[in-house]
Structure formats: C-alpha cells, structure tokens
UniProtKB/TrEMBL annotation:
Protein name: Methyltransferase domain-containing protein
UniProt-listed GO biological process terms: methylation
Keyword entries, A-Z: Methyltransferase, Transferase
Stored CDD domains: AdoMet_MTases
Keyword Transferase applies: yes
SUPFAM superfamilies, per the entry: S-adenosyl-L-methionine-dependent methyltransferases
Entries under Gene3D superfamilies matching the protein: Vaccinia Virus protein VP39
InterPro entries: SAM-dependent_MTases_sf
Source organism (scientific name): Streptomyces lunalinharesii
GO molecular function: methyltransferase activity
Length: 220
C-alpha cells in the first residue's frame, strides 16, 4: 500500500511530466491551417494582441479599403470593419471557406454590412495592384507556407502609401520578429512601428521603394 503513496519529490516529478506532456500535445497538435473544429479557441483574445493595440498600429480610418488575411472566426474583422464606415470596406480572405462563412454570419447578426469575403490562398491574392490602403494578418502569416510570397503579394496589392500589419504570437507556427523583419526587407518593406516583444507583437511596415519614389516628388 505504501508504494502507491506519492512522496513530495515524486509528486513534483509527476506534475512536471504531466505539464511537459500537455505542452508537447499543445505544440505538436497545433495544425495548419487552423482547424475550424477548434474555432472556439480563436475567440480568446491573445495577450498583447488586443483590439486596442491593433487599432493603434493599424490606424484604420473611415472610407479606407483594408484587406485582412486569415480572419478565422472574425475576432479582428468585426472590430475593424465598423471603423471603416459606410464608404469603407473590409475584404477578408481565407483558404478555409468555413471561416469566411462564420465571419459573414456573425457580421449579419451584428449588422456590419461592409465586409466582403474572398476564398483564396494568400500566396496568390486575386486583387489588382494598388488596391488596398492597408492589409493585416494576426497569427496567420506563420501558418502559411512560403510567407515570403505573401509579403511580396502584400507589396503588390497595397497602394504606394499603404501599410502592412503583421501580428504574431508564440505557438508552433510563430514567426519571431527577427526572421519576419528579414522577410519584410526582402519584399521591399520597411518597419515603421512595432508593439510588443518578439514573443507577441504587432509590427507595421510600408513599401520602401514606393515611399522613396513618392518622397522624390513629381519632377524625378
Ligand atoms: C490561427 S487562425 C487566426 C485567426 C484570426 N486572425 C485570429 O487571430 O483569431 C489563422 C487563419 O489563417 C488562415 N489561413 C491559413 N493558411 C492560409 C492561406 N494559405 N491563405 C489564406 N488564409 C490562410 C486559416 O484558415 C485561419 O483562418
């Protein structure tokens, strides 16, 4: 009977092993694209990637046309779209049609009329050049194979004064800030703002070549 009793050191080891097993299951069970079946977890606001911080970094304004890639269940979409007003539009693009249907259903319930869904892969954006005032992805870029292609596409579809906001959070698909900065550099994007640490951050970039061109003025 005595052998069934866990002593304090054994209990500590048992707790540590259970915690490690749970962490391993969380890390290795984390799939891409994020499974629709686990959508309820997307409703939990992530620390440091709050709506208030997204507003401060993205600065959405009435009348703008903004593209959100990887909206999931719409945690950010339903917050940003109303800020664009009746003359603005939020386009949401996702590789999983269930996610788009979910957001549109919630937008209907809340009477948010200016969200337009597009089913596509972010590596090939089905939009013309210079279409959007801004584009953002929150915990989505790291989940997409070939993130460089997404950033290259962002540069193409943004207007010359456009802005790209990337939010990343520590999980299996997380892109630490350093590698993201290098990818952005290769795409011709320069950093204008960053909020948070490398473990959980929102970073804002602008197309450099275009901004340099516009700074040179019409005579150059
Ligand atoms: C972890 S969820 C993030 C959802 C939401 N942004 C949030 O923070 O709650 C990632 C989203 O990216 C989408 N996604 C993954 N790969 C994609 C791709 N190649 N093109 C477009 N969307 C993609 C997924 O379907 C999912 O909706």
């Amino acid at each position: 009977m005595g052998s069934a009793v866990l002593t304090a050191p054994r209990l500590r080891w048992a707790c540590a092993l259970s915690a490690a097993a749970a962490a391993g299951a969380w890390w290795f069970g984390d799939k891409a694209p994020y499974p629709y079946a686990q959508r309820s977890l997307l409703e939990l606001p992530l620390p440091f990637l709050t709506s208030a911080r997204l507003d401060a970094v993205l600065t959405p304004s009435p009348g703008e046309r903004i593209l959100e890639v990887g909206p999931g269940t719409g945690l950010q979409s339903l917050h940003i779209a109303p800020q664009l007003g009746p003359h603005g539009q939020l386009d949401i693009l996702d590789i999983q049609p269930e996610m788009l249907r979910h957001v549109m259903h919630r937008a209907g319930q809340r009477a948010v009329p200016n969200i337009v869904p597009t089913h596509a892969d972010a590596r090939e954006l089905p939009f013309d050049d210079d279409t959007f005032d801004a584009m953002y992805l929150v915990t989505a870029l790291g989940e997409i194979p070939e993130p460089q292609r997404v950033l290259d596409e962002a540069v193409r579809v943004l207007t010359p004064a456009g802005r790209l906001v990337v939010g990343e959070f520590f999980d299996r698909h997380w892109i630490p800030f350093g590698p993201l900065h290098r990818l952005a550099d290769a795409a011709g994007l320069h950093l204008s703002t960053r909020s948070g640490s490398t473990l959980a951050y929102l970073a804002r970039f602008q197309p450099c070549a275009r901004s340099q061109r516009s700074l040179r003025g019409p005579e150059s």
